[in-house]
Write a structure and sequence with these properties.
The protein has 193 residues and is mainly alpha-helical. The chain has one domain: Tetracycline Repressor, domain 2 (Orthogonal Bundle). Helices cover 75% and strands 0% of the residues. Helix 5 packs parallel to helix 8.
Length: 193
């Protein structure tokens, strides 16, 4: 059983990496098998639903990790300030872009851009994944520790995702820096620092 799990995990990790680099439609199943170092039969065994099922596994893997970071931050005592949350989210992407030389973006953006979300299960999974980020963000961005800020969370998430796309295009973290500054100014003006 360990080998099957290892094979499955390597396949999901390889697919996530390739989707982030090339997009979903730019990544063939043969590319994924080769990058994972697994047998082609393992792909069919672990993902009998084909590429769509693999896309769903990538969404689940990526979002459980990312949303987990936000949930962990929400449970930290004392809870981070909204400005700390802005720095955390922007810093994560700044580090990721610099670490990968701007090669890897968000897999959810790749799925939306590649129109993979036209598959109902994928659309639902992407929407659920984004909510799994928005909900803890809304709590973390609340100024009084009790009233979530869903609008601010959505704006921050949209700003950061857009800045990641712009940063990759320009090969510069300046778009992320600009988004960070806007939200830090907003949290300071509202007294949420």
């Amino acid at each position: 059983m360990g080998k099957r799990t290892d094979s499955r995990d390597r396949t999901v990790a390889a697919a996530e990496h390739l989707f982030r680099a090339r997009g979903v439609t730019g990544t063939g199943l043969r590319d994924i098998v080769e990058a994972a170092g697994t047998a082609r039969g393992a792909l069919g065994h672990h993902f009998p639903g084909g590429k769509e099922e693999l896309v769903l596994a990538v969404i689940d893997h990526n979002m459980s990790r990312t949303a987990g970071l936000l949930r962990e931050a929400a449970q930290t005592q004392p809870r981070p300030s909204p400005s700390d949350v802005v720095r955390l989210l922007v810093g994560f992407w700044r580090d990721e872009l610099l670490r990968t030389d701007y090669a890897l973006g968000c897999p959810l953006v790749a799925m939306v851009v590649d129109d993979v979300v036209n598959h109902p299960q994928v659309r639902t999974a992407v929407a659920t994944a984004l909510s799994s980020l928005q909900d803890p963000l809304a709590t973390l961005l609340s100024h009084d520790d009790t009233t979530p800020s869903p609008g601010l969370a959505m704006a921050l998430l949209a700003g950061v995702e857009g800045a990641v796309v712009l940063s990759r295009a320009h090969r510069s973290v300046q778009p992320l820096d600009e988004v960070e500054q806007v939200f830090l100014t907003l949290t300071a003006r509202e007294g949420w620092v």
